[in-house]
Amino acid sequence: MSLNTSLNEPIHHVVIVGAGQAGYQVAASLRQEGFAGGITLIGDEPGLPYQRPPLSKAYLLGKIGTTSLRFRQPEFYEQNRITLVNDQVTAIDRLQRQVKLSSGGTLGYDHLVLATGARNRVPVVPGTELDGVFGVRTLADADALAPRMAEVKHVVVIGAGFIGLEFAAVAAAKGVAVHVLEMGQRVMARAVTPQTSELFRSAHQAWGTQLDFGHSVARIVGDANGRVSGVETEDGRLLPAELVVYGIGVVPNTELAAAAGLDVHNGISVNALLLTEDPAISAIGDVVSFVSPYCPRPIRLESVQNAADQARAVAARLMGKPADFTALPWFWTDQGDLKLQIAGLLDGHDEVVLLGSAAAKQMSVLCFRQGRLIAVESSNRTPDHMAARKLLARATPLTPAEASAPDFDLKAYELASREAV
Fold this sequence. Notes:
The protein is of the alpha/beta class and 421 residues long. It has helices at 21-32, 66-69, 74-79, 139-149, 162-173, 194-206, 255-259, 304-318, 382-394, 400-403, 410-420, and strands at 2-4, 9-11, 13-17, 38-43, 82-86, 89-93, 98-101, 106-108, 111-114, 118-120, 133-135, 154-158, 177-182, 210-213, 217-222, 228-233, 238-240, 243-246, 250-252, 268-269, 281-283, 288-289, 330-335, 338-344, 351-357, 362-369, 372-379. The chain is built from 11 helices and 27 strands. The strands form 8 sheets. The protein has a 5-stranded parallel beta sheet with strand order 5-4-3-9-21. The longest helix has 15 residues, at 304-318. It is globular. The mean pLDDT is 95.
């Protein structure tokens, strides 16, 4: 057994709500850490826990199947005594330390981990209920969307963020005419620098995608059979579409925590140990608002790696190895023949240095704030990304002047700085 360290009470049973990346990882990590008690992993989707990132890319392209999406096959859960429950948690009774299930039962816990994730933000316009309008968040979404791809000639994508552009690249590769509507003035504007936005804008246009900036959707139009037939923009244009896919961000699933009286502010609020104000409840993953040494304000990250890192941190704490969560944030997206990898957080950067060539689709953008490296965006330059993660984790004092040298090599610099320590 282990102890709820804040409570000094033994933990015999851990219940995890949410079977995505964070939920799966905390269950697996608890066993890897030697936890011998009961583990119950509750997911509200049928089947085994699975990876979400490939849904909008390799899965839609038919490069991988359902089995390959799974984190693990059934025998893993049996061998590791992880009980899978396909149900929905409707309430948390903090006093009795129980969760209530939609099927009518209850489950007791000594420690509860909330990994409830997030859901797609749905456009607030008429017509979203029409047949042929999709978000891409779950396996069911992708399974319903995939066969439509072979039947349509025109697709409208609402939102030029990671998910929208990943889908746009897949649709263009399948020969579909793609029109992307984005209210902002550039692609992935909330996540990347203008330099990286321009590289990806140019690439998508070269693949045949039409990008439309500064315009919003007035309504989604359907035919007499209730199937989508087009999208009307706020400036009165009617764009043909037999399929509409939206990717305009997500909403964290905080309702369960809020109803239980836990603090919620752009996510479930946790301390540096990823504990809520209830010492018997942790929260991790896309649903969590936490303090990072890489950001001056509480943040919520929608990242596979953040979910996995936080899960491992909670598992270690429950096994008597508490430590503040200080992992470096990093992200990636695959679009066509472009792989973007981001290390660090670029909020507040005031200077950039470019490495490589946008024309060659091999470019890194080094982001500095007050002369200090805070983030690196690498497009088809994986060695730069790997070096950046190490440099940022060590807070290596690379300056813009050093990075601007004509023969500067980020990987070589990282190696040299490591040997100098």
